[in-house]
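Researcher: Next entry: (2Fe-2S)-binding domain-containing protein (Thermaerobacter marianensis).
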Amino acid sequence: MAATGQEAAGQKVPVTLKVNGRTYTREVEPRTLLVHFLREELGLTGTHVGCDTSNCGACTVHLNGQAVKSCTVLAVQADGAEVVTIEGLARDGRLHPVQEGFWEEHGLQCGFCTPGMIMAAAHLLEVNPNPTEEEIRRGLEGVLCRCTGYHNIVRAVQYAARKMQERSAAAD
Ligand code: FES
Ligand code: FES
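Model: Predicted structure:
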């Protein structure tokens, strides 16, 4: 007999993901969103949920090197993928330059948008290490700040771009 819609929704399927360098396998319902997988299955609550319309960008993570809104991806679609969340951005106890920039330039007020903003900014600087102010604003337009702290957010990203350039010049 064919499964009813409700039974099908209750069936679980295995999903394996590498998150912040660690591999996890969990059984999830096919309808589970990646953001819920991260928050509820893995306890990585730094990735926020700010809307139910795929609008706010608070849920932004890196999926196979791309910045994506994790509420727009099913966990099963991410099976086998590599994910980086805000918890995985610092390396060896050292903040990522974008995190440092948000700290130094007061790039947050309530902080709700901050994880998504930082993940989007970190990806922006990977693809464009020396963005103009306009490019920063455009690159972050998928993430909304309800506190409207955009000025300092732009300064934070400019700070990070400078730091990253200085560090790569020093490493040459
Ligand atoms: S939670 Fe708002 S875009 Fe994902
Ligand atoms: S700092 Fe409050 S939403 Fe951006």
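Model: Note for the record: Residues 15 and 73 are 13 Å apart (CA to CA).
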